[in-house]
């Protein structure tokens, strides 16, 4: 199988990530570029590695995390499915088996909360990794914080850490929110659906998902 480093250096994939992020910038959506896919790929692999999955499975999770948002190049709506189709065509040209392609593509196609489901360990890890990336640096310089709740919540997030306690079968997302910028309820207004999905994904992995905001457990 092609290594993750080779995927990172692939000019076609890099171009699609870069251009997808530019498209989202034009429509006023938070950063979905190289920083986001780096966080997502590393966290997805960390989750599976911590649960004892083999190197190949962890690598497929990293690849899925790196490529999961390329469908935004086509349109934000349905980007998981269009991204999966794009990934299928790209990976088919590289040294991947049908089994490997099916695992990666299926995870990409099931990561968006509108249509997502943790259909596999890779998909479950990708969901948690993607939805846990909340940080101030995702807000674009052109954003008007007071007018967009997504920008406001991300800007208010001073710190967000994902921690796996494999012995206790718990995965915890801890977020420090500046309540002078937004209320904790603002987070729930836009992210509750995503957090419920994270809980479902954690259950697929045999884990309990906990959300802690400002030192208070909310899920």
The largest beta-sheet arranges its strands as 1-2-3-4
Distance between the terminal alpha carbons, to the nearest Å? 38 Å
Please mark out the parts with pLDDT under 50 across 5 or more consecutive residues, or reply none: none
What is the CA-atom radius of gyration, in angstroms? Answer: 17 Å
- Could you tell me the number of beta strands? 4
Number of helices: 9
Compute the average pLDDT: 96
Helix content: 40-55%
Oligomer: single chain
Largest sheet: 4 strands, mixed
Q: Describe the global form.
A: globular
What class do helices, strands and sheet pairing give? alpha+beta
Order of helices and strands: HHHHHHHHEEHEE
Strand content: 5-15%
Descriptive overview:
This protein has 219 residues and is of the alpha+beta class. The chain has 9 helices and 4 strands. It has helices at residues 4-9, 11-26, 34-50, 55-67, 79-92, 98-109, 121-131, 149-156, 184-204, and strands at residues 157-165, 170-177, 208-213, 216-217. It has a 4-stranded mixed sheet. Helix 4 crosses helix 7. The radius of gyration is 17 Å and the shape is globular. The model has no long low-confidence stretch (mean pLDDT 96).
């Amino acid at each position: 199988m092609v290594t993750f480093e080779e995927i990172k250096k692939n000019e076609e994939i890099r171009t699609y990530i870069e251009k997808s992020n530019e498209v989202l910038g034009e429509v006023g959506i938070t950063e979905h570029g190289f920083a986001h896919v780096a966080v997502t790929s590393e966290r997805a692999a960390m989750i599976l590695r911590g649960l004892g999955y083999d190197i190949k499975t962890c690598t497929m999770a990293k690849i899925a995390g790196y490529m999961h948002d390329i469908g935004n190049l086509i349109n934000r709506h349905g980007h998981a499915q269009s991204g999966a189709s794009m990934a299928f065509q790209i990976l088919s040209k590289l040294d991947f088996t049908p089994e490997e392609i099916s695992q990666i593509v299926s995870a990409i196609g099931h990561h968006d909360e509108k249509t997502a489901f943790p259909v596999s360990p890779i998909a479950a890890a990708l969901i948690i990794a993607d939805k846990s990336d909340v940080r101030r640096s995702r807000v674009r310089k052109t954003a008007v914080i007071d007018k967009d709740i997504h920008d406001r919540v991300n800007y208010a997030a001073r710190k967000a850490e994902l921690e796996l306690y494999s012995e206790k079968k718990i995965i915890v997302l801890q977020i420090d929110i500046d309540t002078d910028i937004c209320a904790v309820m603002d987070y729930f207004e836009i992210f509750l659906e995503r957090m419920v999905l994270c809980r479902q994904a954690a259950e697929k992995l045999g884990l309990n998902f906990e959300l802690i905001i400002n030192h208070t457990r909310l899920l």
